[in-house]
What we know:
Layout: H1 2-28, E1 56-58, E2 64-66, H2 67-75, E3 93-94, H3 96-108
Antiparallel strand pairs: 1-2, 1-3
Amino acid sequence: AEAAEAAEAAAAAQAAAAAKAAEQQQEHQPHRPVREEEEVPNEFLCPISGEVMEDPVLARDGHSYERVLIEQWFATGRHTSPKTNAAIGTDLVPNMQLRTLIREFLERNPQSSA
C-alpha cells in the first residue's frame, strides 16, 4: 500500500511540475497573433500572370492555370504549354483541390488576396 501511495504521490508531483513548466513557458512568450502571415505558395500563383488563382484549371501539361488566362492563351491560336512550350491539347479540368487550398489559405491570410 505504501508503494502505491508513493507512486501516486510521485505521479501527482510530476503532473504538477509539468503544469507549472507549461504555465511559465506561456508567460515568457511575447503576445502575438496566433498565426503570423504566411507566404503565398508558388503553386497558388498562375504561371501566366504570377497572381493568386481564383479559378484554377489543370491543363494537359499537368500544370494549373487561371481559367480565364489559359482560355485566352488558347484563343490566340497557341496550342502550347505556357510553362514548358510543349504542344498540348486545349481541354481543361477544374482543379477543385487547389481551389480549396487557395481559399483556405486566403481565409487565414486575407491580406494576401490584395
